[in-house]
TrEMBL record:
Belongs to the paraoxonase family. It catalyses: An aryl dialkyl phosphate + H2O = dialkyl phosphate + an aryl alcohol; a phenyl acetate + H2O = a phenol + acetate + H(+). It comes from Crocodylus porosus. InterPro entries: 6-blade_b-propeller_TolB-like (IPR011042), Arylesterase (IPR002640), Paraoxonase2 (IPR008364), Serum_paraoxonase/arylesterase (IPR051288). This is Paraoxonase. It is a peripheral membrane protein.
Length: 362
């Protein structure tokens, strides 16, 4: 998290004299509250034909869907400063099949040799190769570190075969991932540090050191920077543009992707909520965003006043006037801390950082 941009910072007159230090501190706290939407309340928006997905009780932080209707869900994230309802249970990858009449979430078995005890999955992304092999990229935080795990999906027995673990100095605090090949990806670092104390300091000082990195076996480089907290990342159906959510700046950056994998900014869509993961409906090009109405409630959890959930649908984002619709919103009585919304063939799944998941037929 980051709460105040040190490039702008408090007005100079606030910090010119020692006796104005308290004024500067109040300015920082005020800026921090604004970044977290501390006082924002939302009007509820209900959806018909919805029910909670049985078996998901400790999060469904990210969701990806294959063209054939198979769904991958990351569950059980333990993240510094965030609530967990299963702190001693390893994370898992769940599978659902939207072709079933009553889809259920089932845990995917992972091949031997992979350290399941420390599995702590975060963002995920799938890639289908020319031979129809399905690769699943998973951001993992074993022992409070950041790695990227690469698996192949074995559909015959609903299992994952672990291929490799990727670590790199330019991937210190990975949040989300976008696979663009069987061995290459874009990744967002939501912080410069992953140590919980340093993350808090980074947040308090408002350091805009969050970035996006491109990784391949032959080249690793930063391709975008200066974010408060780069979070969800995804790509347009024509693969020309990359979309990046900055959680604490309440916006989505639209970046043009070049042949050398570099990115250049095209525009920024400013919103009024904390945008987490982004999902692309490939049939329409629409962006579905899982959002946090109030970040304060997520990071300072109170069971008597839980964090709410919000889903946005963004149409024609490249146009001069994109259409932004609030599809779902509620105060946490049903779903706490929505982080992703994924649409497939009229069926919407809404996942959360640490809570349950909702399935709706629209």
């Amino acid at each position: 998290m980051a709460c105040q941009n040190t490039v702008s910072g408090p007005p100079p007159e606030m910090i010119a004299r020692p006796e104005t230090g308290s004024v500067a501190l109040n300015y920082i706290f005020s800026s921090c509250r604004n970044k977290l939407n501390a006082s924002r309340e939302i009007e509820p928006v209900e959806l018909p034909n919805c029910h909670l997905i049985k078996g998901i009780e400790a999060g469904s932080e990210d969701i990806d869907i294959l063209p054939n209707g198979l769904i991958f869900i990351s569950s059980g994230l333990k993240y510094p400063g965030v609530k967990s309802f299963a702190p001693d249970k390893p994370g898992e990858i769940l599978l659902m099949d939207l072709n079933e009449k009553n889809p259920k979430a089932r845990e995917l078995r992972i091949s031997r040799g992979f350290d399941l005890a420390s599995f702590n999955p975060h963002g995920i992304s799938t890639y289908i190769d020319n031979d129809d092999s399905v690769y699943l990229f998973v951001v993992n935080h074993p022992h409070q570190k950041s790695t990227v795990e690469v698996f192949t999906f074995v559909e015959d027995d609903n299992s994952l075969k672990h291929l490799k673990t990727i670590k790199h100095d330019l991937l210190p605090s990975v949040n989300d991932i976008l696979a663009v090949g069987p061995d290459r990806f874009y990744a967002t670092n939501d912080h410069y540090f992953f140590d919980s104390v340093l993350m808090f300091l980074e947040m308090f000082l408002g350091l805009t050191w969050s970035n996006v990195v491109y990784y391949s076996p032959t080249e690793v480089k930063e391709v975008a920077g200066g974010f408060y907290s780069a979070n969800g990342i995804n790509m347009s159906p024509d693969e020309k543009y990359i979309y990046i959510a900055d959680l604490l700046d309440h916006n989505i950056h639209i970046m043009e992707k070049h042949a050398n994998w570099n990115l250049t900014q095209v525009k920024v869509l400013q919103l009024d909520t904390l945008i987490d993961n982004l999902f692309i409906d490939h049939s329409t090009g629409d962006i579905w965003a899982g959002c946090h109405p109030s970040g304060m409630k997520v990071f300072f959890y109170d069971p008597e006043n839980p964090p709410g959930s919000e889903v946005l649908r963004i149409q024609n984002i490249l146009s001069e006037k994109p259409l932004v619709s609030r599809v779902y919103a509620e105060n946490g009585s049903v779903l706490q801390g929505s982080s992703v919304a994924a649409m497939h063939d009229g069926k919407l799944l809404i996942g959360t950082v640490f809570h349950k998941a909702l399935y709706c037929e629209l």
